[in-house]
Amino acid sequence: MLSTHDLHAYYGKSHVLRGVSMNVQPGEIVSLLGRNGVGRSTLCKAVMGLVAPVGEVRFKDQVISGLDPHQIAHRGLGYVPEDRAIFPGLTVAENLELGKKKRGQTGRWGYDEIFERFPRLKERMEFPGEVISGGEQQMLSMARSLMGDPECIIVDEPTEGLAPKIVEEIAHLLTDIAAAGVSVLLVEQKLSIALKISNRVYLMGEGRMVFEGTPQELHDDPEIRKEWLEV
Amino acid sequence: MLETITYSLLNGLLYGMLLFMLSSGLTLIFGMMGVLNFAHASFYMLGAYFAYTLGMYTGFWVALFLAPILVGALGAMTERWGLRHVHQHGHVPELLFTFGLAYVIEELVRLFYGTLPMNYRMPEGLDFTLFTVFGTSYPAFRAFILVVAVVMFVGLYLLLKKTRAGLIIQGSLSRPDIVAALGHNVPQVFMWVFAFGTALAALGGVVGGIHFVTEPGMAFMMGPIVFVVVVLGGLGSIPGALIASMIIGILQTFTLSVDFSIAHVGAWFGYAVPPDHLFATLWYLDSTRIAPVLPFLILVLTLIFRPRGIMGKREA
Ligand SMILES: Nc1ncnc2c1ncn2[C@@H]1O[C@H](COP(=O)(O)OP(=O)(O)O)[C@@H](O)[C@H]1O
Ligand SMILES: [Mg+2]
Q1: Ligand 1: does its nearest atom lie under 6 Å from the Cβ of A129?
Q2: What is the mean pLDDT of residues A148-165?
């Protein structure tokens, strides 16, 4: 479904991605783990075309590296950024509306489906996006991306800074979204949620993959965890 | 005194509205892509010259619509084939590009029209006195300028708040990257914003060229002040641009028309500084001489104390 092959990325002279290869299969939840600063967010941005990718990114058997972000989005990739990026000054409803790629787009995710899974948003529709809680903003950002009817979403650290109860809720939502047929590439730092909901995990260290396997395999390998994950 | 106040208010309002016509487009351009478009006022000038030329064949009323459309098309081309390429290399080349463009446009105008002011006049239908206050008459054409500006403000506000294109623009004012990642063609939207913004500036020129004079220096007269308005109002904010335009417009007209200095205040308390005193220059400094500096003083102070401006969402 989504794959990168020997992908590199740079910020000016600093070489942040140093040959990353990975893939996400249809319907899978794949977690990308790693310490802060190893380049997980940069990988998300390079896939979305927000940072220039050097190397190959493929989506549904077509090369998408080199396309503009809006073209990549139209191919069916959704992006939920690390900072949630709720548009200030716009209401929750308007934020959701911007998730549609065209006026009146009707995909698998209409308002009914969104409200069913994100009931909190329904009550907040007329609130300015910047005043709702962090958890609600995260849900809004996810819902906004689903409004565009993606086949795969990249979710960058959705649980950062949220209370355990909300983290639980988001984990449940991600499972639900994947069950509805949307593949998920989940960037996480918390091992617990990643191990619980993913089909496969990648572990990243200093711009390259250092581990790939099932959650069970990572669970059973304390050496790797100690070297690349735990602080 | 009341007479001076009424007079300055009316004229300040008018000048403010003209500033708003220029700054509304610029604030969107600036707010959306961070493009410091020094040539913005040049499109205002082109609006005046185009309307003058077209008006000779079509009359004022057709030129009022046609000139902004033509200038908007030029704006679109400037963005598509100029700015968009330069933009990739960062803000400094971009700034130099628009700076150069402003001079190119001015020289081209000189080449085609010469340096003398054009005989660009208001249409006869608007050449009458609307009302008279305190013995000064208020021409209908000035009221017309106010109407054009108000219609423009309402139209812009509705466009931004009530349409889908407006939503995309508003989103892009804070996070163009995310708007793009949601599937919207941000560069194309920006080209339209640039075209629309230059067309609005041209509309300002169509009426401003009559109110002031249509000559090659008119762009450089307005250009810097428009930046003050954009920064004071807050990047990307149309209501902010309106408020800031009014503040600058009225303030400048007041300082120009009221003969005032610190010496006047001193005189009320029966105090005066001798003319050979070290601070005498400051003491007797007339407000009319402060007027040209005032906007830029405000610019500097805004940047230091409130970089977001009056209603901006992010810092200048
Ligand atoms: N816009 C940027 N400009 C320069 N360096 C950056 C930028 N964004 C991230 N970096 C650097 O790139 C590296 C990887 O960052 P990031 O991808 O955000 O890591 P992660 O998401 O894994 O925490 C870090 O060293 C970070 O400091
Ligand atoms: Mg990150």
Answers
A1: no
A2: 94
Residues 6+ apart with CB under 8 A from B159: B165, B166
Which residues in chain A are contacts of B87 at CB distance < 8 A? none
Beta-strand runs (E) in A134-173: 152-156
Please report, for the domain that includes residue A20, its CATH number. 3.40.50.300
In a domain, B200, yes or no: yes
* Residue stretches of chain B with pLDDT short of 50: none
Which range of residues forms the domain containing residue B273? 2-305
Domains held by chain A: number: 1
> For residue A128, what is the DSSP state?
B
Whose CA is closest to atom 25 on ligand 1? A37
Ligand 1, atom 3: nearest CA belongs to which residue?
A: A11
CATH number at B112 reads 1.10.3470
In a domain, B310, yes or no: no
- Which chain B residues contact residue A90 at CB under 8 A? 167, 170-171
A157 dihedral zone (left: phi>0; alpha: psi -120 to 50; beta):
left
In a domain, B312, yes or no: no
Number of structural domains found in chain B: 1
Q: Do A79 and B170 touch (CB under 8 A)?
A: no
Ligand 1 contacts CB of residue A36 (under 6 A)? yes
Classify residue A63 as exposed, middle or buried by CB count within 10 Å of its CB (0-12, 13-18, 19+): exposed
Q: Are B31 and B172 within 8 A, CB to CB? A: no
Give residue-wise pLDDT tens across range B181-199. Answer: 999 999 999 999 999 999 9
Question: With bands split at pLDDT 50, 70 and 90, how would you rate the model's confidence at A148?
Answer: very high
Which residues form the domain of A14? 2-228
Closest C-alpha residue for ligand 1 atom 20: A37
What is the token pair recorded at A65? Answer: 């590296």
The percentage of chain A sitting over the pLDDT mark of 90, rounded to a whole number, equals 79
Interface of A with B in 10-69 (CB under 8 A): 48, 50, 68-69
Domain assignment present for residue B57? The answer is yes
| Stated pTM of the model | 0.88
